[in-house]
Design goal:
By secondary structure, the protein is an alpha+beta fold. Helix content is about 40%, strand content about 15%. The protein contains 13 helices and 7 strands. A 5-stranded antiparallel beta sheet has the order 1-5-4-3-2, with helices on one face. A two-stranded antiparallel ribbon has the order 6-7. A hairpin with a 2-residue loop joins strand 2 and strand 3. The longest helix is centred in the last third of the chain and has 18 residues. It is globular.
């Protein structure tokens, strides 16, 4: 039997309308759907918001033998990914009058940073996004999902867990990516060095040497060539929900601080970290709200040169 859970958000909330470019999360009307693999069992989770104060999540197994534990885990991971349980009251009390992000907190209190259901996904996709445009990274991610991700075809029966349109797909697990050759990933337009880095990350996770849900594994990841602080910060922010994890080397942030601080150029990583230091222990969350508030100003600003 499916598992259905009703959540009453503790802070103003809206289901996200933008679900990322990798194609794994789908929205049909008011319902967001995602296919998750939980311990080898495939589960579909649907989420919808019948009214402002309620969010409903419904998990259904793709096989009759799907366990109750798998359904519960799938619900828990989607609650995390959608940010439905986040209480931003402490953050808002501290910064609702702030000139940088106070307006965004007031006018867009339902904003939530984009997260991944599994920390492994955040890590893998961070590697694919290194030093390239978001649209190009999304295309690489879609190719990886199409080639190796789990797939659920739609069915017409009224009781079907997915009725389309098209198949519902999932992000391939670390165990699967760990067995790929770098040339296979490079064929999807991923730079060869990043293909090697992604496979090495997958092997560390698959072998149990790194648990991406725990920050104690970050130092081991940082020893992999091609894995730097930005990748680990994305893992912490998007994969573990750490509000203070700020990916200071992100292009969006170096441009944002370059404009707001009137540097006449892109900021350095150190300048971004200094700019957001007053927002600890919510630097990542503050950065997310700052991008929401000021993205238009950055887009309209003259092109910024590189930092000296």
């Amino acid at each position: 039997m499916p598992l259905e859970v009703e959540v009453r958000p503790r802070w103003p909330y809206r289901l996200p309308s933008r679900l990322g470019g990798d194609g794994v999360a789908r929205r049909r009307g008011a319902v967001v759907s995602r296919l998750l693999e939980v311990g080898g069992e495939l589960v579909v989770v649907h989420a919808w918001q019948p009214e402002r104060s309620r969010v409903v999540l419904r998990a259904a197994g793709c096989e009759p033998t799907t366990t109750a534990a798998a359904l519960e885990t799938a619900i828990e991971r989607m609650r995390f990914a959608l940010g439905v349980d986040e209480d931003l009251s402490e953050f808002a009390r501290a910064f609702r009058g702030d000139p940088l992000i106070g307006e965004a907190i007031h006018h867009r209190p339902w904003h939530r940073p984009r997260r991944r259901p599994w920390p492994w996904e955040a890590l893998a996709w961070a590697v694919t996004e290194q030093l390239i445009e978001a649209s190009r990274a999304a295309e690489i991610q879609r190719r990886i999902v199409l080639r190796w991700g789990s797939k659920l075809m739609p069915a017409a029966e009224p009781t079907a867990v997915w009725r389309g349109p098209g198949p519902l797909r999932g992000v391939p697990a670390a165990e699967l990516i760990s067995g790929r050759a770098p040339a296979e990933l490079a064929a999807f337009d991923l730079a060869p060095s990043r293909a090697i880095a992604l496979i090495r990350c997958a092997r560390e996770v698959a072998a149990g040497r790194v648990d991406p849900s725990c920050e104690t594994g970050d130092l081991r990841l940082l020893r992999i060539p091609g894995i730097g602080p930005w990748t680990v910060q994305i893992l912490g922010f998007s994969g573990r929900g750490e509000p203070d994890a700020l990916p200071a080397g992100d292009l969006a942030y170096v441009k944002l601080v370059g404009v707001l601080a009137r540097l006449g150029r892109r900021a350095t990583v150190e300048e971004v970290e200094e700019y957001f230091a007053p927002y600890a222990p919510f630097r990542g969350l503050a950065g997310s709200f700052a991008l929401v508030r000021w993205h238009g100003a950055v887009a309209q600003a003259p092109p910024l040169g590189l930092a000296a």
